[in-house]
Amino acid sequence: MRVPFVDAHIHLWQLDRLHYPWLMPPFADDGPNGSVEAIARHYAPADYLADLDGWNLAGSVHVDAGADAVHAVEETEWLEGLAAGTGVPTGIVAYAPLHDPAVGNLLARQAGHRRVRGIRQIVNWHADPRRSYTPQDWTRDPQWQAGYALLARHGLRFDLQCYPAQMPGMAEVAARNPDVPVIINHMGMPVLGDPDGMADWRTGMAALAAQPHVAVKLSGLGFVDRHWTPDALRPLLLEAIDLFGTHRCMFASDTPTDKLFAPLGTYLEFYESITDTLSDDERRDLWGRNANRIYGLGLTI
């Protein structure tokens, strides 16, 4: 029997309830993820549970799904209702714009929901506008850094989705705020097309790994290479595990977004294959115990 899986990164959406700009037509292939038309349809707990059938699912963490910023609290309230009725999700990483001078009020509202464990604001900035998710590098902005510091006041974690070139600066921000646990999304998203893409990734990940309150999700392989293969990305996953140790890494499906690049089972079977040489305790940490502990989910697994 498979070990319990606490899925550290999922998304749910109901397109006629909230507005998700990135899931609306017209669809194009020139953005950071290519066309998202294939996943631009409702994705509910029943769909998620069907996708994870057979994987001994013990819990899940929903990460902000890119709804319009004005719907940040509405998304959280909707997810709380889903969780009460279906058990999915177990925990919530909500959205807040940390560069907003008034973000403290929103953080308090988000933290007031019992399943909210953290905040994500995607901060991927790249000099190539086709790769950039943001108009500027928010992580260098003093107002953004002030908003980040407020997370500790509300007992909130930060899900960090950035590019490797931003990591040394973020390691300094993390060092100044040791009471804000950080969870790197999608293995740090190395940009293989950059001249120093892998060197930037290694330098940045090492800087973040030096902070004991930083962990990483093993997910998002299609963000690294839309045409990824297990043989190509196995060394990258093993290197991430080596940098952070099996006590600070966690597997995540990133469904349904990662389904843009491969069937969900392909990812999970790949993750399973790279744990063959690990101890039972290490495997259980990667598949569920780390996510349970780092996100404070309170599950018995």
Keywords:
301 residues; alpha/beta; TIM Barrel; eight-stranded parallel sheet; 8 strands; globular
Number of domains: 1
Structural class by secondary-structure content: alpha/beta
What is the string of SSEs from the N terminus onward? EHEHEHEHEHEHEHHEHH
CATH class: Alpha Beta
Distance between the termini: 14 Å
Question: Shape from CA axes?
Answer: globular
Largest sheet: 8 strands, parallel
CATH topology: TIM Barrel
Identify the CATH homologous superfamily: Metal-dependent hydrolases
Biggest sheet strand line-up: 1-2-3-4-5-6-7-8
Total helix count? 10
Percent of residues in β-strands = 5-15%
Tell me how many strands there are.
8
Low-confidence stretches: none
Mean pLDDT: 97
Gross CATH architecture: Alpha-Beta Barrel
Rg, nearest Å: 18 Å
Helix content estimate? 25-40%
Protein name: Amidohydrolase
GO molecular function: hydrolase activity
Domain Amidohydrolase-related: 6-297
Family: Belongs to the metallo-dependent hydrolases superfamily.
